[in-house]
Amino acid sequence: DVKVTQSSRYLVKRTGEKVFLECVQDMDHENMFWYRQDPGLGLRLIYFSYDVKMKEKGDIPEGYSVSREKKERFSLILESASTNQTSMYLCASTYGRVPEAFFGQGTRLTVV
Amino acid sequence: AQTVTQSQPEMSVQEAETVTLSCTYDTSESDYYLFWYKQPPSRQMILVIRQEAYKQQNATENRFSVNFQKAAKSFSLKISDSQLGDAAMYFCAYSGTSYDKVIFGPGTSLSVIP
Predict the structure, then answer these.
(1) Does A106 contact B43 at a Cβ distance shorter than 8 Å?
(2) CB atoms within 10 A of CB B57
(3) Which of B61, B101, B73, B8 is nearest to A43 (CA)?
(4) How many beta carbons lie within 10 A of that of residue B19, not counting itself?
(5) Which pLDDT score, from 0 to 100, does residue A87 have?
(6) Which residues pair with A15 in a beta bridge?
């Protein structure tokens, strides 16, 4: 089975801190994604990557950056956390020509 | 830009009954994929069913089936013989052939009443 693992299920950070959310997949998938999930808004794409060291902005990239130094790892970075970034963050990966997404278990981030 | 709409924020169904969740989408592409994902309280997103737009036959997976109306851009999910374990948030999603991203609707929260 494909496994997508996010480093934390729950995280509490202070305003202004630099925050790293890590995601690792074990199936050699080319594409990796970071989504933000908020009630009533569904999942919104922050950034995605289709290859090592490649990244593309999604629909809501402001305030975030990403890093993909290795194929299996995709990191989301909040440069200076703010309270409006309190949310659930979901990492996903896809492979080949069938865009079925495999998800991690989510990280619920609270910025205080 | 593609969009996905789910007009039912919340639904409920009696155990063993049938429920239909609605989804509409907007796209100018002729070839694409549609999905229904389930997110139970554990938060682990699980693929329920997938439909390729070029296939006219509606997809089915055990108790789950879809009604895909391409001209109307409608993609509803029918759950038959509902079980307590079906209680979850259900997301309708779209992906075009560029494979660059999956677009999600806002979700429908389904409750199953014993």
Answers:
(1) yes
(2) 8
(3) B101
(4) 20
(5) 97
(6) none
Per-residue pLDDT at A2: 67
Cα separation, B89 vs B104, in Å, equals 12
Task: Compare all CA atoms of chain A with the CA of B95 and give the residue at the minimum distance.
Answer: A99
Over the stretch A5-22, which tens digit does the pLDDT of each residue have? 999 999 999 999 999 999
Burial of B10 from C-beta contacts in 10 A (0-12 / 13-18 / 19+): exposed
How is residue A26 written in tokens? 């074990």
**B8–A contact, CB cutoff 8 A:** no
Residues in chain B, total: 114
What 8-state DSSP symbol labels residue B85? Answer: G
**Hey, what are B43's tokens?**
């938060």
Residue B100 pLDDT level (bands cut at 50, 70, 90): low
Q: Can you tell me the distance from the alpha carbon of A55 to that of A76, in angstroms, rounded to the nearest whole number?
A: 11
On whether the CB atoms of residues A67 and B2 are closer than 8 A, the answer is: no
The arithmetic mean of pLDDT across residues A44-52, rounded, is: 92
- Pairing type for strands B10-14 and B108-113 reads parallel
Do B44 and A97 lie within an 8 Å CB cutoff?
no
Distance between CA atoms of A43 and B91, rounded to whole angstroms? 9
Predicted confidence at residue A73, as pLDDT, reads 96
**In angstroms, rounded to a whole number, what is the distance separating the alpha carbons of residues B100 and B12?**
34
